[in-house]
Amino acid sequence: MIDQFNHWSAAWALLMWNIAWQSALLAAIVGAFCWLLRRESPGLRYALWLALSLKLLVLPLWSVNVPAPAWFSSTAHAEPTLAQTQPTGLVASATSQPAAPLVPQELQTNPREQPQQALLWHSLRRLTLTTWLGSLWGAVVLISIARIAWQFRSLRRLLTTTTGAGEAERIVVEQCAARLGLARLPAIRIFVGDGSPMVCGLLRAVLLLPSELVEQIEAPALRQIILHELAHLKRRDLVTIWAIQAVRTVYWFNPIVHLIAYRAGLERELACDRLAMLTSGANATTYARTLIDAASGRSQPLVLSAASAARLTG
Length: 314
Fold this sequence. Notes:
Blueprint: H1 2-36, H2 42-58, H3 70-73, H4 82-85, H5 88-92, H6 116-125, H7 129-159, E1 163-164, H8 167-180, E2 187-191, E3 198-200, E4 206-210, H9 211-216, H10 219-234, H11 237-250, H12 255-280, H13 284-295, H14 302-309
Parallel strand pairs: 2-4
Antiparallel strand pairs: 1-2, 3-4
């Protein structure tokens, strides 16, 4: 069993090595294209980063196999077997005299008399470095999945404390959705306190608005903010961001992947800003002032910060 684990971890390590350098190469190519398209629509640049994320998801199924460095591949093999340590002649003539097992001297006693701690220590010593690294990778992936599940639970708990929107807010949302051409109006919920508005929900979209923002901000500014949030629904960002989140979860150890996620998130927000400005008719200065006024003096609740960090919402 230990040898099988070592074999699997060696194959995993080689795969991660190939994905690491190939993702860096692809990110450099996409980054160069985005720089050439820096004056074009941010939605186009986001599409390139999203395509790269989708490519990384399928890269384990199709990648160029390049041998890892000597120092890396030397740790990807299990301890040598008896046939590898004995001369060929001894192995061929070993039919008359059985070979001694590769067990430390202190453990060559009756198995019933062997201390469990010694057996465990001997088994752990047979694990290679890549096996330990693979175990660490799997543990962090499971922790990340558990963290996302906890954030979903916190978000659902927040939804239970919200109230329905008033008639004025509902009319504004309907008008904004009509301008964007949304086929389905999201549910509108108001939560008590300050924070940032957001949209969530894959099957049934929900627009969350903080009560203090609704009460304090002027109607034109509120309309621009709602247009930005609804733009995420128009662009189907609540679906596409899961590809980026999946890449960040699987390749958490790769800084190139985090750079890809950052650039994709930036271009996604710029694309929503552009769509909101074009729909509202506001210029860049007025729109930027609206965002600053909405963000100044507000502290996001922990659940919203966690959900935003996990890219669960727009």
